[in-house]
Design a protein that fits this description.
Keywords: WD repeat. This protein has 9 helices and no strands. The longest helix has 14 residues.
């Protein structure tokens, strides 16, 4: 599979799906759902220029430190504000870590897919029989990216649906997802980047970005973090890539 990918006989999308499968990730388990990377950083321009490297996310860094301002915080700040360098569990049960949450988990999958069954029902069950408050829901792609850049504790990567399934961006079932507290905006369809004119257009351009020359040249750096040698040990510590 690796050689086929290197020879460009299979797409970046297909290679990531196969890596996820080999790693034991499956659509049948929300706790081990396939994980895909955020690949863009430009969600505000009127047009998306895939020939400009500046529109792409740095794939060599975990999503929590793509914004360099967060790197110092991640090194120092821990759950309960322990320092990574100094934190020791008195019982010796917990290894040191940079992030108390994870880049892929069941709640994150339900967060993205809240508008599509059976994930809507699963979300409601998780929230004790109701929708979570509107401000915590997935309501805007630009706002979700900005939250990642502002908050090093939010480290959600993407799911494969961002590259092929426009329906998850639409509230086709007319669920009452509430209103945002500050703007009073009703949460309905997901707000798209300015460069996307419809959910289908977003998927088309996002998939095109995944298969772009820039991502093809740098995707292995993200794979090292998620599936490769930077998952554990000294390489993970150096890459600020240690999870609880």
């Amino acid at each position: 599979v690796f050689q086929k990918w290197v020879n460009r006989e299979i797409s970046n999308f297909d290679y990531l799906i196969q890596l996820n499968t080999m790693a034991g990730r499956t659509y049948n388990d929300l706790a081990q759902y396939p994980v895909f990377p955020w690949i863009l950083r430009d969600y505000t321009s009127e047009e998306l220029d895939l020939n400009n490297p500046a529109v792409f996310r740095d794939l060599s860094k975990p999503i929590g430190v793509v914004n360099e301002k967060n790197a110092k915080t991640v090194k120092e700040k821990y759950i309960f504000f322990f320092r990574y360098e100094n934190f020791e569990d008195p019982l010796g049960m917990i290894d040191k870590f940079h992030y108390g949450t994870h880049y892929s988990n069941a709640a994150g999958v339900m967060h993205y897919l809240i508008r599509v069954e059976p994930f809507t029902t699963l979300h409601i069950q998780l929230q004790s029989g109701r929708f979570d408050c509107a401000d915590r829901q997935f309501h805007s792609i630009p706002a979700t990216w900005q939250a990642l850049m502002d908050n090093p504790n939010d480290v959600k990567e993407l799911i494969p649906e961002f590259f092929y399934f426009p329906e998850f961006l639409e509230n086709q079932n007319g669920f009452n997802l509430g209103q945002l507290q500050m703007s009073k905006e009703v949460v309905n369809d997901v707000v798209l980047p300015k460069w996307a004119h419809s959910p289908e257009d977003f998927i088309y351009k996002h998939r095109k970005a995944l298969e772009s020359e820039y991502v093809s040249a740098h995707l292995h750096e993200w794979i090292d973090l998620i599936f490769g040698y930077k998952q554990r040990g000294p390489a993970a510590v150096e890459a600020l890539n240690v999870f609880y």
